[in-house]
Hints:
By secondary structure, the chain is of the alpha/beta class. Helix content is 34%, strand content 20%. Strand 1 and strand 2 (20-22) form a beta hairpin.
Amino acid sequence: MLAVGTLAPEFTLPDQNGEEISLSDYRGQRVILYFYPKDMTSGCTKQACAFSELYPQFREKGAVVLGVSKDTVASHKRFEEKHGLPFTLLSDVEKEVTARSAWASSAPPTSSTRTASSSKPSTRSRRQTTLRRCSPSFDARVFLYTILFWLMVAKLR
């Protein structure tokens, strides 16, 4: 987990269309970055579909969703097309981001390890929520409610 006051680490990975995407491309936006084990598996599909279902609400609140796994660009493209996913999937075949990620669980990655993080990459991570070993269908709602809470707090200040 990123410590409060730490900038989210910069990285660049190809998306499901083969385009290079950098975390800095989303500077100033709320970013929900979630790591998952494998495309097309039941748990990962439930998780992706939960984010997909809530995606319009995330966008309405100024958040973007980025899914990261070790699957190939081609696998991500099939996953996106099969389930109509409206958000970006990033391919970390070499596991460079996942391995050095502050969001990754301290336990060795397994097929059941999922992590997700929400923060504003352009700011210090004082408003970061991290879930480890997330429930595939529960975490999308947690992040939506977290964003709504942040917006309410901001209005109160």
